[in-house]
Write a structure and sequence with these properties.
The structure is a homodimer of 315-residue chains.
Chain A lengths: L5 H6 L5 E3 L8 H9 L4 E4 L5 H14 L4 E6 L5 H10 L4 E5 L4 H9 L3 E6 L3 H9 L3 E5 L5 E2 L7 H11 L4 E4 L5 H10 L3 E4 L1 H4 L8 H9 L5 E4 L6 E4 L2 H11 L4 H8 L3 H7 L23 H21 L1
Parallel strand pairs in A: 1-9, 2-3, 3-4, 4-5, 5-6, 6-8, 8-9
Antiparallel strand pairs in A: 7-11, 10-11
Helix pairs in contact in A: 2-3, 3-4, 5-6, 8-14, 11-12
């Protein structure tokens, strides 16, 4: 099983399932749990100071002897410091996002890192290929958190990226179970990255109230928002209503940034303020109904994948 | 192949590929071509007068001895007349959309029609099941034309609907090739309905300029619009900019209806006014690059489906 899978070979993992490096959710506990279960766990550096990232890398290493990685958004003043830590700690798997892949890919590759870049539109695939990345995550409109302006869904984005490049490709956005993995591969991907489903695991650092909210909501309860700033998919709570109304009434970028303020996603996801926080989560939240251990999810996905694959072959 | 497929059995067709009954595209030529190729062709009654629908049904029958159907939006003053024609002409396959399935399903079923209802959110699946429909089309956010307010993408919508009902299920939105068919089945559907791809066939009634525009555009060039009226996915042309600006500036429903006016989709799709018409098309337009005969598309989808299915089994 998955002997010839390019994602498994590239990262040295058992199953082509990547756990997204989400802000305020993806610490060492979650990453280690997913890696121990045979997937690829990622530490989400986006919400960490360089010091905290160092601690999480060290803790992850203490808690798994399997490969794990770091997701690093390429914006922000401390990217250089975080890269230094990643290299010093000998982390060999880096997922880069939210920025130009050309800036850091060469440095990372010179230090023998495997570099995967996250894109939300096929035109960015060209840039990532030119930058020399080893693999891509293509993330559809349905994904939680930061997203692209093209609004391309997973169903369209995966074949579109596959037309452009033969690089190992990880599909993200809307990933739920084994059916998602099989569908992603059918569309031309080699594996999946799941975010929301791992956000509501026991090992996720998110606040319990946030996890409860995510498993409670239904279709239509998240929305791609903040389109005048950077598009983000979030739950439609008070904060959403407030900033969306301001956007609709023609508020300027500066006014919107003032409403957004600092630390909105921390307030919501980590501190559990369900009304005033920015509750980043994907559309797949509509399918979620329980908080589980992360390893159990990896097992469930693989079990269902094999069942559905067999049903297809028998048909 | 497809011996046990429930969509094929239900409609008596060879392949589980339905051609969407699109306004200004889906006349008898297109429907007959798709049915002759082993799929299910649908006449789009939405843009036809009752008299024209009668002509198209009769012409379709003259041009194929295979099953074909009619797509009937349930809004509009002449629905009753169109149902009379469908029953009198002994059309046995009816796809209903844009309205309450309870209103007409019983009448159609009493006349031994197979009734399939189109939904864009899983909560509408419950209503359709209660109304006694035989099958469902679940249409994701990426689809062209009229769409739902939940913005659920195909990747999320199909598993969500499958959780609710075991009815034969046709996935729509983002359908391109054999990978799409395989992915749709992996997610829990039994077949697919493709719109955009058949809109740019030789047999489509759309204006040549519209077809050329569709194969030229890229990712991000369509947008779900008119959210204050009824959401419609269309190309971002002058008309789109005009009405979107009005929406953003807080125009009332009445003002928006005035800008929309009458016959916008006819102007764009049928008459080829690429700037002032309403150019309804799906995100999958980004993947389209040629005008083909419809039957060739059916063949291509099945060929690629078999190749990808084999590649999966061998893996």
């Amino acid at each position: 099983m998955f002997e010839n899978n390019r994602i498994c070979k590239l990262f040295g993992i058992q199953y082509p399932i990547v756990q997204a490096g989400m802000v305020w959710c993806s610490g060492w506990r979650l990453a280690a749990a997913v890696s121990n279960a045979g997937g690829l766990g990622l530490i989400g550096a986006g919400s960490m100071t360089p010091e905290l990232l160092l601690t999480h890398i060290q803790k992850a290493r203490e808690n798994t002897d399997k490969p794990f990685g770091v997701n690093l958004p390429l914006l922000g003043p401390d990217v250089g410091q975080k890269i230094d830590i990643i290299l010093k700690e000998n982390v060999k798997i880096v997922f880069t996002s939210a920025g130009n892949p050309k800036t850091w890919t060469t440095v990372l590759k010179e230090n023998r890192c495997i570099v995967t870049h996250v894109i939300a539109g096929s035109k960015y695939a060209i840039k990532a290929v030119e930058a020399g990345t080893d693999a891509l995550v293509a993330e559809g409109f349905e994904a939680g958190g930061h997203n692209g302006r093209e609004e391309s869904t997973t169903f369209v984005l995966i074949p579109a990226v596959r037309k452009i490049t033969d690089l190992p490709l990880i599909a993200a956005g809307g990933m739920y179970g084994g059916g998602s993995l099989l569908a992603a591969i059918a569309l031309g991907a080699d594996g999946i990255q799941a975010g929301s489903r791992f956000a509501v695991t026991e090992e996720s650092s998110a606040h319990l109230e946030f996890k409860k909210k995510v498993i409670e909501i239904n279709e239509g309860d998240t929305r791609l928002s903040l389109k005048k700033l950077i598009p983000v998919r979030m739950i439609r709570n008070n904060f959403y209503q407030h900033i969306t109304k301001a956007e609709e009434q023609g508020s300027s970028r500066i006014e919107l940034l003032k409403i957004l303020g600092e630390g909105r996603s921390k307030l919501g996801i980590f501190e559990g303020d369900l009304e005033e926080g920015e509750l980043e989560i994907g559309q797949v939240s509509a399918l979620l109904d329980k908080i589980q251990p992360a390893g159990e999810i990896v097992k469930e996905i693989i079990k269902e994948y094999l069942e559905r694959k067999k049903a297809l072959s028998d048909d």
